[in-house]
C-alpha cells in the first residue's frame, strides 16, 4: 500500500476523502506485473477529477507509483483513490488543496468459474438510485447507495444462493446497472445500455464494450431502459474491470442461456485485456 | 484528536468511511469543557447509525472519550465521525464490522458578529439536490452535493462579498435548506420548514426550533416550499449547531430586517445552549 508515494496504509482523519467522500477511485486487475487497461483507467480518473474540480495527479507520477507497487505484488486487484486532500474545516474546497494519492492491492477474488462461462443469477435491488446530474457517471467516493443496495443481497449473496449481482433501478423506474457493474442488453440484433446522465457510473469496461460494437458494426443504443425490456431481452450481461463479463442466466422469473453475442464480447475483452 | 479511543489523527485507507463514505458524523460546539446539546447529538448519531445499519458505539464510551478530549481542549468545534469500520473489499457491509470512532476539535470560527445580530446575505446555489429517501435526513459522509454547492460560492464567500450561506433547492424545485444549515420561514404568523423526506439533513438545531414552536404554541408546518414562498416570507433564518441562528437579510433581490420571531428563537437557542 502506498500513501502519497510512501509505503503506508494510513491517512489523516482530516482528509476530505473521509470527511465528505470528496474524491474518486479506480479498481482494476494487474497480472504478471502489468496493469490491465491502465491508459483507459488514467483517462477516466482524469475525467472524474476534472468533473469534481480536483487537481488530478500527473500520469507519469501515478504510473511510477503503480510500477513500484507491481514490483512487489505482481498481481491482484489494484485500487487507486485520489481525494481532494486535506483542508480547513467546512465543505468549501480549499483553493490550495493538494490531492491525496492512495494505492492498495488485494488478491484476485475467486469467483466460481462457471459465472464467466455459464452466467450468473442476478436479482433486482429495492433501493432506487436518485438523480444527480452533477455526479452521474463519475466513480466518486459517495457510494452509500451502492452499499445499501448491496446490503439487500447480503443473505442472498452467500455461495449457496449463488446471487452474483444486484440490478439497480432509478427513482424514475429505469434500469441503471449492477451494484458494481454496467449492464448491457442484446435485443433484436442491437446492443442497448442504460443512459447514465442522471445516475450510475460509466465504467471503463463499458467504454470497451461500446468500442467493440463500433468495431464490429453492431448497432448500439444508449438510452432509458425499463424493467420490462430487460426481462424480455435476448441476452443480458454485466461488465466491470475485475469480473470481466458475466452473462445473466437468471433474473427474477426469467431464465436465459446461450449468449452468443456476450460470448464474442467476452472473448474480445479477455484477449485485448492486457 | 482521538482514533478509537487513542490519541492520533490517522485512519486506515481500508476504512469504509473513506472507501464509500460509509459513516455518519456530528459537529457541535464545546465551551468551558462542556459539549453543547450532547444528549441530542448522541440521539441523532444513534438514529443515523441505525438508518445505515451501523453498530452505534455505546453512549458511555463516546461520552468518556469526549470528556477526555475536553479535558485537553476546553472549547472549540467538536467533530465526531462514526464509520462502519474496516472490511473486506466490496460494497457489502461486513457482518462483523466494528465501527470506527474519530474525534477532532478545531478552534471556533470567527464569524463577523453582525451575522448573528443583523443577519446574513445568502445566495441560491445552482446545484439541485437529488432525491434519495433512504439517505434523506441522515448526516452521512456522502457530502459531495454540499461540496459542489459550496464551491459555487467560493468567490462570493470571500469576506468582501459577505455571502455567508447558500440555499439549495432539489431537482423538483423545492427549497431544501442551506449548504450547512436548516432553513425556517416565518410566514403569516407560522413557522415553516422544508420537508426533508427526500433530501437534506435533519439537524439537531432544527429539532430545537421545532421544540421551541411547540413550547410557545406557534404553529409550525413541515412541508414542500417553493422559491417564491421563500422570497416572500416575513422572516427567513438558518440554524445549525455551530452558527446558532442567522437571519437572512438579503437573498437574491429581496432585503429584510427586523426578524422579531427569529430574535426570540435565537435567544432561546442561546440561553438553553449548554
Properties at a glance:
homodimer; D-amino Acid Aminotransferase, Chain A, domain 2; about 270 residues; 16 strands; alpha+beta; D-amino Acid Aminotransferase, Chain A, domain 1; six-stranded antiparallel sheet; 2 domains; about 30% helix
Total discrete domains of chain A? 2
What's the overall geometry of chain A? globular
On the 0-100 scale, what is the average pLDDT of chain A?
Answer: 95
The unreliable regions of chain A are none
DSSP, total strands of chain A:
16
Main pleated sheet of chain A = 9 strands, mixed
Please, could you describe this protein's structure?
The structure is a homodimer of 274-residue chains. Chain A is an alpha+beta fold. The first copy, chain A, has 2 domains: 2-106, D-amino Acid Aminotransferase, Chain A, domain 1 (2-Layer Sandwich), CATH 3.30.470; 113-271, D-amino Acid Aminotransferase, Chain A, domain 2 (Alpha-Beta Barrel), CATH 3.20.10.10. Chain A is built from 8 helices and 16 strands. Chain A has helices at residues 16-20, 38-52, 59-72, 113-118, 144-152, 204-215, 227-231, 260-271; strands at residues 2-3, 6-7, 10-12, 23-31, 34-35, 76-83, 100-106, 120-129, 163-170, 175-178, 182-187, 190-194, 220-223, 235-240, 244-251, 254-255. In chain A, the strands form 2 sheets. In chain A, strands 8, 9, 10, 11, 12, 13, 14, 15 and 16 form a 9-stranded mixed beta sheet that branches. The first copy, chain A, has a 6-stranded antiparallel beta sheet with strand order 2-1-7-6-4-5. In chain A, helix 6 (204-215) links the parallel strand 12 and strand 13 (220-223). The radius of gyration of chain A is 19 Å and the shape is globular. The interface between A and B is large, with 59 and 59 residues.
